[in-house]
Specification:
Strand content: 15-25%
Shape: globular
Largest sheet: 6 strands, antiparallel
Strand order of the largest sheet: 6-5-4-1-7-10
Order of helices and strands: HEEEHEEEHEHHEHEE
Distance between the termini: 36 Å
Length: 238
């Protein structure tokens, strides 16, 4: 594939489609600020995109940074917001999946992690309550089943990785958000070094023709879906 060099993803600059209609705290440690912002702005079915740092292979390989790099994206991860209807003063929660499996966190805890460098929130335009409920029930069903993380990025929902969870949850509500991309056609692949690529193949078993869903950027992938609108634009944290 003519792989040369080693790209390091940086925080994306502002984009014309990224209007940041709702300002938010600047510090990941502003726990009460993020709690209040989430309660005021989030709805069930919203998608929280983030960039973080998570190492595998005994700390030798930053998997989340690699995923952002090959997707030419400011994000490495995404989760689904669920608002607890009927629970007074409750924080929205985020359901996602990571290397240890399905997770449920309060939104402010999701942001609070010292690994979080940037977040963004997008929403399906016109998502009705019935569809949002189907999305939430799909995600909760996999929490209850303790569905394992899909380390091989394989199709199907017996195992799931983060973007796949989002795609399948909305598919259960009859909403198609994005198509997969063959691994060999990912937009940032040519900028990833050969050592990183070998480690990725060792840990995932991916081939060039395997279809994958990644969080994406302004032009490609889930983030660029024309069905999404911005709630919070690319928001660097300190």
């Amino acid at each position: 594939m003519g792989l040369t060099g080693c790209k390091s993803t940086s925080i994306a600059p502002a984009h014309p489609a990224d209007q940041r209609p709702n300002s938010a705290p600047l510090s990941r440690t502003d726990y009460s600020g993020w709690r209040d912002w989430g309660k005021a702005n989030l709805r069930t079915g919203d998608l929280v995109f983030m960039q973080s740092n998570h190492y595998i292979l005994l700390g030798t390989f930053n998997l989340t940074r690699f995923l952002a790099d090959i997707g030419d994206s400011p994000f490495s991860h995404v989760g689904i917001v669920v608002v607890m209807d009927g629970v007074e003063d409750a924080s929205p929660i985020v359901i996602d999946t990571a290397l240890n499996g399905m997770r449920v966190k309060k939104f402010e805890n999701f942001v609070y992690s010292k690994r979080t460098e940037v977040i963004s929130v997008r929403r399906v335009r016109g998502l009705d309550q019935a569809s949002a409920s189907k999305v939430a029930k799909y995600a909760q069903r996999h929490v209850d089943a303790d569905t394992p993380f899909d380390k091989g990025f394989d199709p199907g929902d017996d195992k799931l990785y983060c973007t796949e969870l989002v795609i399948e949850a909305f598919r259960s509500a009859g909403i198609h958000l994005a198509d997969p991309t063959p691994a060999g056609d990912l937009p940032g692949l040519g900028d990833v070094g050969p050592v990183q690529l070998r480690l990725a193949k060792k840990s995932t078993g991916l081939t060039e023709t395997d279809p994958v869903y990644l969080p994406g950027n302004f032009e490609t992938g889930l983030y660029a879906s024309p069905k999404l609108e911005t709630v919070l634009g690319v928001w660097p944290l300190r």
